[in-house]
């Protein structure tokens, strides 16, 4: 009966419905496929265009000190957000065992000053991305040379200068 109706329509108008139905189905499937592909591509672009997550505060502290003292010099960096203290252990880049004590002390003092200043005087952009570093009140440094502790240094945000305590007899 349905065939008779289609046959009568074909006879009356001269239009065969089968190619039209096939075309509509193919167009709908192709359109759905393109929509799905475009949706997936837009999601991937959205993920790629997001800014990277800010680094962990310890990683940022390590990178800041290494940018001043030297690459791969920081042995340990810890941030205690509860007390507002940063503890850093790094290898001295300027200490030489055969240089005079006066020069060694100057170089260690300079390293301590630079390392503490880079953490206590951060630019606003870094503080905005890692607010935990804005709460730092004290920086404690341990300066080592080939595994032996040369000196310790403490700097506080509200006090000027760095208090350096020499431990190794080569710099005392």
Main attributes?
single chain, 172 residues, alpha+beta, five-stranded mixed β-sheet, 5 helices, 49% helix, 20% strand, rod-shaped
Shape: rod-shaped
Broad structural category: alpha+beta
Number of E strands: 5
State Rg: 34 Å
* Share of β-strand residues: 15-25%
The main pleated sheet reads as: 5 strands, mixed
- In which order are the strands of the major sheet placed? 1-2-3-4-5
The end-to-end distance, rounded to whole angstroms, is 110 Å
What order do the SSEs take from the amino end to the carboxyl end, as H and E?
A: HHHEEHHEEE
Mean pLDDT: 89
Low-pLDDT sequence parts:
none
Helix content: 40-55%
Per DSSP, the total helix count is 5
Secondary-structure blueprint:
Layout: H1 2-13, H2 17-49, H3 57-69, E1 74-80, E2 85-91, H4 101-120, H5 124-129, E3 138-145, E4 148-156, E5 163-166
Parallel strand pairs: 2-3
Antiparallel strand pairs: 1-2, 3-4, 4-5
Helix pairs in contact: 3-4
